[in-house]
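Appendix B. Extra example for self-study. Work through it before the problem class; the solution is given directly after the inputs so you can check yourself.
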Amino acid sequence: VTSLFIPLLTCDRRRTEKEILVQSIIEEVQGVIVFRPVERTVDQSNASTFLAPLAGYTSENHKIVIDLSETSFLSSAGLGAIVMLIRDVRSAGGQVYLCAPTPTVKALFKLVRIDNITRIFETRTAAVNDMSGTS
Amino acid sequence: MMPDDTANWMEHLAVVNSASAFAGNGVYAICDKQGLWILHGAETLAVYMGSNQAGRTLPEWLGIDDLDAYKHLFERALPGADCIEEALATGRSKTRFRWLSVRVLPLDRLNDSVCSCCLIYIADVTSRVDAIEQVARSQAREIDASARLQAAVLLSDPEIKSGSFDLASATMPSRFVDGDFLDVFQLTEGKIDLILGDVMGKGMEAATLGTLIKFKLFRSLAGLLHNSSALPSVAQICALLEQAVSSHLATQRNIVTMAYGRMHERAQAFEFTDCGHTPIIHVRGTACRMLKGSDMPLGFADKQEFRSFLVPVRPGDVFLLYSDGLSECVSASGEFFGEEKIMYISKGAATEGARVLVNQLVRLGFEFSASGFSDDVSLLCLKSLPRELVVLERATPPMAKTCRHCSVGQGTGAIEGSLRLAMVDVSRALASLRKRLAVVFRKIRCIDETERGLLLIACHEALSNIADHGITAANKSCLAEWRITEGLLSLEFTYQGRDYDWLERPDTTALQYGERGYGLSIIHSVMDSVLLCNGLHDEKTLVLCRRLTCWKP
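Solution. Structure tokens for the complete assembly:
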């Protein structure tokens, strides 16, 4: 397992110290890029930046899993950002899966039928295994 | 010979200057230089003297009585024969008046106005006039009886007595009877249904159609109630009604608008569907707003989907249903009475009670209009009376301590609160709203954490939409009010600014890969009713309502 810990102190200057300790993480697991945003609330104020660490992965056919376990509130702006990322990665021949959404975020995904364009897994391991073909 | 028997009437003419003219039924005329005699047998019915009778008009000759009143009876006598002067004259016989039809055909004009020779035809049409009058009297009696019957069927007086509501209605057909209809009825305990409809057109035809609509409405209701244990929603009732009447309306090339409202006493909510009708006026304190739904009139399109909307009701709130005969009555200068005047008058009179408000609107509308109401005017007003309402928590900033005893869904109390949001910093306002509502929503025991989360997202999206599309006022503030009653969560966002397309429920799914457009879709999915109301002075209120599981329809 190769882990790439990338501190993202500039993502949100209003984070509390506790949050800064649990920074957004990009890891590479079994050839899959796993990204876990740490923003508990994603709304119009940070929708354009919370996926910024993945900007470098949209131009090639990367396999990406977004771990949403930390995100308890996702507004339509955040939803739009996720959908745009999925579109861009897919156009480049890659794939994006979502995993570990909180119950509310999961219900929101169901409302907008995001499962029509990507897959949602209960756990990060299940998502990575499925994407890497080891399941 | 009947006067309109044009093929034969020439045979009964006589040349006036040949001394005599024979008229049917024993009546004849003699005309010479001295004058004109109308006789029946040896009896002279009328004598008209003059030195230059030929230069007079026939009415001048004959001294006609009630010419205008009876002229319509002979309108079809000789269509297009403008050279023929026709008139009715009355002649008194020994026993009774006789009606004579006199026609004059100038034969030789000396100039444009003087005739030296003419043909006169006189017929005794007494029996025919009598018959026509009898028919007219009979028709008038029938119209009168029909009008009373129609009024009884179409315009039922509110008979429901309730300690919670004050009801009043008024109606004025522009003719004997017209197509407006209204009613108030109670299908189940704690709910009052109100309807006010308007059939396009006037007179008996409109009234008959109005009666049919009302009959079909109650028949549809009976069917729905028979087939379901739950009370149907107003939208369901309107949809079934439209199915029942659409063929009639298509045949008659007519449409019907109808406002259907239902007061839910326990949930303290007003539910409505407007079927293309004029907006319902809602007065609350010093605020007044229009409740306008999204539906087309009945008969306008095939198989419409009707939508019902909910607004929370507070003690003292007034709801006014009215027909466009009031808003569209015109002054001498051509100005419409208009919705704004109705709103101002309603706002001013709402504290006085339903009857005062209705009477004032009728009086001021009538005074405003140049020649009385030219269209039917109907009004139906319901006022929620102040009562012993147990407000379990009144949370105004700073938020009051949570009441440990509140139990929404079991008692009759309400949880309510408000928050004034400065929209200069939208992110901060959104965060404040989320923080406050998260605490409030925890008190709704009949929904789980996930649903609470979705409600929070919907409210966030509503305020975000207002910030993006609605607010224009310099102070950029928005008042958020919430209220939880038995079975209903309502949120109202009041601001000054623009209207926007709040009704649009884009079929936004992730399949379209859109970056935006999910907000409205989320709001409409999570909430049972989303309504943007226009008030006075650009005031807008976005009303979101969600039925709770303890809701009993």
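Self-check: The radius of gyration of chain A is 14 Å. If your reasoning did not lead you there, revisit section 3.
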